[in-house]
Amino acid sequence: MLLRQLRETFPALFSGYESPRTSFESYAGKIRSELLQLKRHPVRIIQVEAICPLDFLTLFRPERRMALLTGQAEYSDWRHAAAVRLASLMAGPAKLHSQEIFEQRISQWENNPVIHSANGLPFWIRNVFTGKAAGSDEKELRRKTIWNGAAIHHFLKKGGTSLVYAAEYDGKPCVLKVPRPGCEMRFRHELAVLRGLHHPNLPEVFACSMDGTPYCILEFCRTGQCVRKSGKITGFLHALQHLHASGWLHGDIRTANLGIRRDGTPVLLDFSHSRGPGCCRETELEMNEMKKCLLLT
Question: Do 169 and 201 touch, CB atoms closer than 8 A?
């Protein structure tokens, strides 16, 4: 009974994105619409003996969870739950199975540069978390999230050292990369390597900074099985040869790090594991690894 009521009354908050391509603006519109409906028709839990999923309860403040189960949840409770859900989606989808994990997530959100300083959704989230939320700030839910000139569309993935967002910069599709908490040093190393390399089969950097909060805005490239289907795979070998000639190993050759531009040009991605070769043999081994990845051997 409880699960059915939650799904029917607040489906976007409960189930998240309809697909990985759902934009922040579209998702926020659903949240806003449902929040306004809940303000007029609050959720009433009739059968409290039903089991509520932990990952749903942890969207609410610990002291307000009993109010949810007894049907006394207020509009501010749902606002907070929506903010937690949106913050999770912006910082990397993850289930919140316990209060301990929830507290860890709160710390990560506070250290996330996008949530900490961008406008639009992050502004609304900050206001809810800091208790400054008011009815008038709901207009922020429909504004674009802009951070350092990049209009963020949606979260893409969580890498080893960075959070990656699909965005638009100067009218061009791009990805925005910001460091994960505690990975700033490795992220700056990746930027230093990337800024020192120039090759047609390496990603174009639209904007980046190593000062203050480091970030990087790169051209958008498709990845996955489409790489092998493109037929233009020799560019990956040329990019790796250039990398080796510049004194670096890539360090993480795999399909996920092989990209394709819209025109089919191959692009070697992700230099977070790059390092200087310990011996000449390592460059040869990495080249063989690339050939295996491209099914050339």
Answer: no
